[in-house]
Specification:
91 residues, alpha/beta, Rossmann fold, four-stranded parallel sheet, 4 helices, 31% helix, globular, NADP, oxidoreductase activity, acting on the CH-OH group of donors, NAD or NADP as acceptor, Epimerase_deHydtase, NAD-dependent epimerase/dehydratase domain-containing protein
Length: 91
């Protein structure tokens, strides 16, 4: 991940997971706008660590998405310059 030269928007799938949450943090540190998909954006206990990340209030948007549900990632990837696909099915 290099230095962002302009506000670039990327999507990180599985944003609340261990690997993806570190990626979200790093991207926010570098100035990226991040769309992160999670199973339930309202489940505060599962997303609080993302919301508490420096820069999150200004540059992080959480989207509800299910890996096995057709079309559930459409809103999250709309307008993004790239996607980091980190989500894995749990069923």
């Amino acid at each position: 991940i290099g230095n962002a030269y302009k506000p670039t928007t990327v999507c990180v799938t599985g944003g609340a997971g261990f690997m993806a949450s570190w990626l979200v943090k790093r991207l926010l540190d570098k100035g990226y706008n991040v769309h992160a998909t999670v199973r339930d954006p309202e489940a505060e206990a599962k997303v609080r660590h993302l919301l508490d990340t420096p820069g999150a209030a200004e540059r992080l948007k959480l989207f509800r998405a299910e890996l096995l549900e057709d079309g559930s990632f459409d809103a999250a990837v709309a307008g993004c310059d790239g996607v980091f696909h980190v989500a894995t099915p749990t069923e």
